[in-house]
Amino acid sequence: MPVDCPERSERRVERRQGRGIGGILPFIVGFLYVVVFSLLAVVAMVKTKFNSRLRVVLLSVTVLVFFFLESGHLITLIPKLIGSEGVRASLGEVGERHVEMYSTSLALVALAFLLGLTFIVGRAVCGYGCPVGAVQELLYDVPTGKSKRGKLILPTRVAFLIRLVMLGVIVGSFLVLGVDLIEEIAPYQLWQLELVFPGFFVIVGFFVASVFLYRPFCRLFCPFGAVASLVAKFSRFKLEKGESCVECGVCDKTCPTGEMTERYGECYLCGRCMTACKTDAIKCSNIG
């Protein structure tokens, strides 16, 4: 149950009914930030000597900015389209008035646009435009011992299958039990400054796990991530081994998802392979 007060309960009801907070403008502002900043991160990766310091700066900006955006609920609506809103609409439980109140229709457009963007620039939105992903990425840099002894390895193939199963669980739990798991966990609650229990402990648990396991929420639970990964498999923008590669294997060992060898659309463009490569062999593929 949420930490309740009448005002917060009313705002949550409004979000579920599609009215949003503060009208359409916060939605658009938040969406534009995610898109523009994600593209900015891609440009930085292409045009600069990308390193861990620049990655931390970009991620920190997103974490901080979402505290000031009224539309902290923006991306929550997008995975909810798969987990609840989309299902509800397909069952005819969302009437014409609900659609006209803009949130469902805008979220549908936003989802389509972000998937189109994912096809062009890969997982840049998840990598740099999402504060939940940004926090996990930063936490993964926390030292846990020499080398990688403090890190847990989760094969990309296994993570990919788990997340597809979770996608089915999210949709099924709503259809069968009427339980919206996204609403219960409320991954953006920290940025909305509205603590939701027991979901607060779940999302904090994901963050703690992020110190040892790379992006567990993104790779195991996020419904949008499950769909985006299917699109990202065919994205125009990728990090690839160039002609100067000497097959030393450093990039493969450095990559936290194993995406240098496995293509599951799970490269979050963290740039660790670029930083680790001694021959500057990791290049950004040409978009076009």
SSE blueprint:
Blueprint: H1 6-17, H2 24-47, H3 52-65, H4 74-83, H5 85-90, H6 96-100, H7 103-121, H8 124-129, H9 131-140, H10 156-177, H11 181-185, H12 189-192, H13 199-209, H14 216-220, H15 223-232, E1 239-241, H16 250-254, H17 272-276, E2 282-284
Antiparallel strand pairs: 1-2
Major beta sheet summary: 2 strands, antiparallel
> Portion of residues in helices?
55-70%
Order of helices and strands: HHHHHHHHHHHHHHHEHHE
Secondary structure: number of strands: 2
Mean pLDDT across all residues, rounded?
Answer: 79
Q: What share of residues are in beta strands?
A: under 5%
Domain module tally: 1
Using brief descriptors, characterize the structure shown.
17 helices, globular, mainly alpha, single chain, 60% helix, 288 residues
Describe this structure in words.
The chain is 60% helix and 2% strand. By secondary structure, it is mainly α. The protein has one domain. It has a two-stranded antiparallel ribbon with strand order 1-2. The N terminus is likely disordered.
